[in-house]
Amino acid sequence: MSAVVQRLERVPAPPGPFRPGFWRSPIRGPWLTSVFGLVLLVGIPVLFVTGALSYAAYNPGLGPLNDQTPGKGPLGFYLFDWPAGPTWLYRVTQGVHVTLGVVLVPVVLAKLWSVIPKLFEWPPARGAAHALERLSLLMLVGGAVFEFATGILNIQLHYVFPGSFYTLHFYGAWVFIAAFAVHVALRLGRMLRALNSRSLLRELRTGLADTRPEPPDAEGLVAVAPAPPTIARRGALALVGAGSLVLFAVTAGQSLGGRLRPTALLAPHNRDPQEGPNGFQINKTAASVGVSAAMVGPDWRLELHGAGPVQAFTREQLLAMGRHSARLPIACVEGWSTEDQLWSGLRLADLAALAGLPDAASVLVESVQPPGPYASVVLRGNQIREPRSLLALHVNGADLSLDHGYPARVIVPANPGVNNTKWVRRLTFRT
């Protein structure tokens, strides 16, 4: 290894970005990089944990229908039985995940800009430790770009990567967080020393005329031949902070709701609000998944499978049964959520008892929707027994619209939106 390094050191650096004098920004240096790094040191773990919770919310342990990431092996060590409450649980965890991910984009870009000379170091490696650090840096940068790109494209409904978003995002997250952990272990001490080298308040009071390069550093971040400053460090921090605030303002309303909902300009599901009891957000319309009015017309029946003979009910027969109500939101993986809507219908617990399995461990919910992702889902026993878990027939005092799942849909507290199956045709309760 040392012989190879020595030979590389004797080879002149290629032209362009590999030459030390190529990078000339006078504000780039360990301190500014460490400020951005500190923000990410707090934000990235929160992003990872909320993403991991989002995956757990799908109850992948119940089988392939729920598990969009097969073969995860030991990476699923943390999975647990997702609770059916509080009602806002998934709305909060996924809202934080998506909103924080969007808000951190300017910080990630600024951090990448601040360390870009490191990506073009020459020679590429100066020993085993340096090679490990370089590898972790490349995995960190690649993982960050991949995770943020796939996540943002998914929430904007423009996912273009080949393969399942869930699978790629899940494995990408583990690669990214592993590289992040190695990078933190290698860099934390240097980051803290860099932060202590300058006063944040003093930098915030320093204007363009008094902006000077940081002292030369062994990391190669400080420019060898700095150009005259065109922005102060406080200006760079303000620019990044303002970018994050703007992104928060045009994203967070889709999760927070209330008066902030109209400001969520980057949220596709907040556009063109409809009037009436069914006028709240829809993930996928009936037409987009191949459900027609004829498929849920007079011949529609709800099949109930359990311990006894199969039972089939018309919608009129279901309406004649004792109905219950619950105020619940819908929250989706894209980060959007509705306000609480008033749902009414039959308790899943009562249907389980009607099927002869009052202590059912799970229920397979099948839709008239043609086969595809989330056309069927399995719900856990604790979700069945939750009193607010319903086979909903009405919302806000009116029949469900076709796009909202007419003639019947599942609605379960704290459940990801796609697991609240619409156009239900069969419930199979199991021990």
UniProtKB/TrEMBL annotation:
Transmembrane stretches, start-end: 31-58, 96-116, 137-159, 171-189, 236-256
Key word Membrane present: yes
Protein keywords: Membrane, Transmembrane, Transmembrane helix
Domain Oxidoreductase molybdopterin-binding: 299-430
Keyword Nuclease: no
PANTHER family noted in UniProt: BLL0505 PROTEIN, PROTEIN-METHIONINE-SULFOXIDE REDUCTASE
Protein name listed in UniProt: Molybdopterin-dependent oxidoreductase
Organism: Kitasatospora cathayae
